[in-house]
Design goal:
- The structure is a homodimer.
- Chain A starts with 15 loop residues before the first helix and ends with a helix.
- By secondary structure, chain A is of the alpha+beta class.
- In chain A, strand 2 and strand 3 form a beta hairpin.
- Chain A is 58% helix and 12% strand.
- The structure holds a DNA duplex.
Chain lengths: 112, 112
DNA sequence: CCAATATATGAACAACTGTTCATATATTGA
DNA sequence: TCAATATATGAACAGTTGTTCATATATTGG
């Protein structure tokens, strides 16, 4: 009972490239604007204009960040006329987001 | 059945400060060196010297990154003589790590 | 085709980040 | 106390990042 890890679970340390990819994934979550976009899209798809309006930021800034989110496979565009609606790509993203949020809240509560 | 979100779950969008904290948390995960340190510590605690050796990096670089991980509350130091052993602070970290890894693998598998 | 609208993109720039090098601090054994 | 060892820290520097501004592309209605 000395070690805190759950010894029963067999886990292999991923190779260095996978860990690089992993850090790249978290890097995408690691920006205020992008996490705010993700948080907004949790409520459903939204177009660029409304995102910019909602986050009170320039359209260009949002577009740039959406491109990063798109390249990372976190959001997906859907065209409808002139408007492009963005939505989260899959539920994994919400899970990662929720995990992080749980950690934040957990830490907040544990401050003595 | 039009919307992809699970409508049953009541979710409030966190305030802007919380989202900032969240992005700060993910930022810590979003660096190769730091994620490699985290991955290494999943196998149990390790001292600075061995971490540097294992990651084939300078002791100073590791110390600097450990400081960031420490400030973020992700790792915890334990002194034993001259040596300082670092370990992950709680299981939340492993969960976030595993979530990210699952997403990576999921994405890899879905490439057509 | 043309003007209006929605979004994307490239260049520029300031701010930030991670590593290295040199040095400081802390602990131990003699 | 002194030398040896382990870790931490500050300054400097190159590389990266996010925003803004100007402009390009794409779509639609007339």
């Amino acid at each position: 009972m000395e070690n805190h890890t759950s010894d029963l679970i067999k886990r292999t340390t991923p190779d260095i490239e996978t860990l690089y990819d992993l850090s790249e994934l978290f890097k995408v979550f690691g920006d205020t604007t992008r996490i705010r976009i993700i948080a907004a899209l949790l409520d459903g798809e939204m177009c660029v204009y409304h995102l910019a309006e909602y986050l009170e930021m320039g359209q260009s800034a949002i577009s740039h960040q959406l491109r990063i989110l798109r390249s990372a496979g976190l959001v997906r565009p859907r065209r409808e006329g002139k408007t492009i609606f963005y939505s989260l790509d899959d539920e994994h993203i919400e899970m990662i987001y929720n995990m992080g949020l749980a950690h934040i809240c957990h830490k907040k509560g544990e401050v003595k």
